[in-house]
Design brief:
heterodimer; A: Rossmann fold; 6-stranded mixed sheet; B: mainly alpha; 10 helices; flat
């Protein structure tokens, strides 16, 4: 039997990130995320959740330590990464269709491929009807769908999401949570998902990283052993509630450190 | 086309707005006539509305020529400042360092009194439409630079990050993100500049009005009419100047709406909201 070395999706070794004033946002973070994992990052505000994503994406550089994405530096791995921001970051002067095509356009995909891929994704996220509309005509949930479609258009292997559903009402959020999981059954990307919502983290993730603040560091690394695939029914299951309260408890403990 | 569809309700509202404005105008005319009757003002001080109207009709060709000359000068100056202003803004948007270094000079552009530099321009360029256009250009440049620069640099950080995450080149960030983002601000600049350009052209004409005696734009004709105590014609010219300012303002408003109404919040028509 041969064992082939497979680089983890994300690997952080001794990563420290500093604010401009010299204080550490993150201190000595070691984290390995395997391919195909869905990892949520959760923690009180100011614990460096967003910074962690920015480091993995290469948008911010660490002051110490090493970061590898798929065995490469974050910048070299960018072609395989998509980033979903808290606000949908749609270009208001582009229609939904042209917004979804943006990532492909920037990466120089052919017009033919762009059209095909965009149409397929709009269908997939249920926005075919509003392809010609401008972002200001869409609801918050629809904007986020467009943003997701744009991110998936480049066939990412790693999807970084920074509180993408924080601004949505609970119903839209739940629906989009289910959608994200559904979309993942087609393209098996690895996900790193920053959120404030414990229920969301538990519902989506195979693993939850709880961060502690001042300076930001990993407090607990929990694996979510709830049945897969997750369906909406899970939310009303007692074991779901039990897990949510366990994580909430950990989160409270991390805050009082 | 959808923008040509007329909504009966907004049509009615527009008509009543026009009717109200006309009523105010009629009231002012009556007041004007009353002042003449009560205070017995001589015609060279304040002509009657009727005399002004007669002057408009009898000197319509001269008025139209003056209107066109000034309009062309103001438009030329404005278009030049849109092109130059946008180009300068692009340079300014490149770095904070460049902005810090050069921004004070645009402030200078805005604060230097045009009447102080007009004689210089007259000396260098000579009397005529070229100097007047140059004056309109100089005076309308600053708002375009300031607003466009603001638009170019105020792109949300996350938008830039999005572009970077997809390996966008600096040119892609400029042309697909910063420039389209700056268009609404550019229009704000043009709107401000359009009024200033008209004022600049008229003021310019007071100094560098005409290379030929007896023929020139509104500013030149105003000067000429006042020297001849042709007060009725002077009034006609003032109305023409006002009309020119309005024409510029509404043309810019229309262009702004035309370019932006599909996607930009501020450019929505009032009855759409």
């Amino acid at each position: 039997m041969t064992t082939e070395f497979v680089a983890p999706a994300v690997e952080l070794t001794g990563v420290t990130a500093r604010y401009g004033n010299g204080a550490n946002v993150l201190e000595e973070v070691d984290l390995t995320i395997g391919k195909g994992e869905f990892v949520s990052i959760i923690g009180p505000s100011g614990c460096g959740k967003s910074t962690l994503l920015k480091l993995i994406s290469g948008l911010t550089l660490p002051s110490k330590g090493m970061i590898r994405v798929d065995g490469m530096t974050p910048k070299n791995a960018r072609e395989t990464i998509s980033y979903i921001f808290q606000d949908a970051t749609l270009l208001p002067w582009r229609t939904v269709h042209r917004n979804v095509a943006l990532a492909l356009e920037l990466e120089g995909a052919s017009t033919e491929r762009r059209k095909q891929k965009t149409a397929a994704l709009l269908e997939l996220v249920g926005l075919r009807e509003v392809a010609g509309a401008y972002p200001r005509e869409l609801s918050g949930g629809m904007k986020m769908r467009a943003s997701i479609a744009r991110a998936l258009a480049t066939n990412p292997r790693l999807l970084l999401m920074d509180e993408p559903f924080a601004a949505l009402d609970e119903m839209s959020r739940d629906r989009l949570n289910e959608e994200i999981l559904r979309l993942r059954t087609e393209q098996k990307w690895t996900a790193v998902f920053v959120t404030h919502s414990v229920a969301e983290a538990v519902f989506l993730s195979s693993r939850i990283i709880v961060l502690a603040p001042n300076p930001g560091r990993i407090y607990q690394d929990l694996s979510v052993d709830l049945p897969q695939p997750r369906t909406a029914d899970l939310r009303s299951a007692p074991e779901f509630d039990a897990f949510v309260s366990r994580v909430s408890h950990t989160l409270r403990a991390s805050r009082s450190l | 086309m959808s923008w040509m569809k007329i909504n009966p309700r907004s049509m009615k509202r527009a008509l009543s707005t026009v009717a109200n404005s006309l009523a105010v105008f009629a009231g002012l005319l009556i007041l004007w006539q009353l002042v003449l009757l009560i205070f017995r003002v001589p015609a060279y001080m304040l002509p009657s509305p009727w005399a002004v109207a007669r002057s408009v009709v009898s000197r319509a060709p001269t008025l139209a020529t003056a209107f066109t000359i000034t309009g062309e000068e103001a438009l030329g100056g404005l278009m030049a400042s849109v092109v130059a202003g946008a180009a300068i803004a692009l340079v300014f948007a490149q770095s904070r360092w460049i902005r810090r270094m050069l921004y004070p000079y645009t402030l200078l552009l805005q604060t230097v009194p045009i009447v102080a530099i007009a004689p210089l321009i007259l000396m260098w360029v000579g009397a005529g439409t070229a100097s007047v256009t140059l004056i309109a250009f100089i005076i309308s440049l600053a708002p375009i630079i300031a607003n466009t620069t603001q638009g170019l640099v105020s792109v949300e950080e996350n938008m830039v990050h999005l572009f970077l995450m997809h390996n966008a080149t600096p040119a892609q960030i400029l042309f697909k993100l910063r420039l389209p983002h700056a268009i609404p601000s550019l229009f704000v600049g043009i709107r401000v500049a359009s009024g200033i350009a008209v004022i600049g052209a008229i003021t310019g004409e007071l100094y560098a009005g005409s290379s030929r005696v007896g023929e020139g734009g509104l500013g030149y004709s105003i000067l000429y009419a006042s020297s001849q105590l042709q007060t009725d014609f002077l009034f006609a010219l003032v109305f023409a100047a006002t009309l020119l300012g309005f024409a510029f303002f509404f043309s810019v408003m229309f262009l702004e709406w035309w370019f932006l109404h599909r996607w930009h919040e501020s450019a929505r028509t009032p009855d759409a909201g």
